[in-house]
Amino acid sequence: MHNHEVLRDRNQELERYSQELTRANRTLGLMNTITRHDILNQLTILNGYLALIMELTADPAILDYVKKGKESIRTIDKHIQFTRQYHELGSCRPQWQNVGFVFAQAVSQVPSPGITFLFEPSDLEIYADRLLMKIFYNLIDNSRRHGKNVSKITVSTRDDQDDLILVYEDDGIGISPSEKEQIFSRNYGRNTGLGLFLVQEILRITGIAITETGVEGKGARFEVRIPRGSFRSVET
């Protein structure tokens, strides 16, 4: 009887801690949202002042400084948007998602004229964070920005013992061997270096890994290793 009471008390204590943690996270989330909103408002005001300066002067030196200021504003804005996305990581329970449907969503959101998309595993579902669409969005955006003259993007799968390998590849210029590990770093690369870092972090939530295995000059190739129990085929 005593052990039962001790177990009950501990369960109640854990439940109380869980509720307190949920409230604390909700408060932090609200503060982050308000702070991001206020910063973005100030950036809008600053951008307006820079636009006025451009109208008031024709001095090349001043206009060059204004141009650099606007570039800094765009970079800050991208960092703010990243903090919003990163804050959402793990905020909701992962769920089973149809990869073909999610990939189609990503394609519809990235301007990609002249690129043909081929997606093979139409019946595949994986257990992943709800930001899964961001993975494909960032991979496609990466191909479009850095692949140079990419005309085809293909997604396929293959088995590797108990794991499933989801392969994303394009026909661009590829990635040099020295960059293969660095491209997933927080501050590496052009365009703030956040996209592939975010991709890796989203996948890690459910134990999924990603590596770049392409050959420079023949296109980028990303292999997403999905462990057993985190993928399934669903009849359509």
Please, could you describe this protein's structure?
- Strand 4 and strand 5 form a beta hairpin.
- The model has no long low-confidence stretch (mean pLDDT 85).
- This protein has 2 domains: 87 residues; 139 residues, Heat Shock Protein 90, CATH 3.30.565.10.
- The radius of gyration is 23 Å and the shape is flat.
- 22% of the residues are buried.
- By secondary structure, the protein is α+β, with helices and mostly antiparallel strands.
- Helices cover 51% and strands 18% of the residues.
- It has a 5-stranded mixed β-sheet with strand order 2-4-5-7-6, covered by helices on one side. Strands 1-3-8 form a 3-stranded antiparallel β-sheet.
Q: How many helix segments? A: 5
For the terminal residues, how far apart are their CA atoms? 53 Å
**Biggest sheet features:** 5 strands, mixed
Strand line-up in the sheet with most strands: 2-4-5-7-6
Rg calculated over all Cα atoms: 23 Å
Overall CATH architecture of the largest domain: 2-Layer Sandwich
List the domain count as a whole number: 2
* Share of residues in strands: 15-25%
Mean pLDDT across the residues is 85
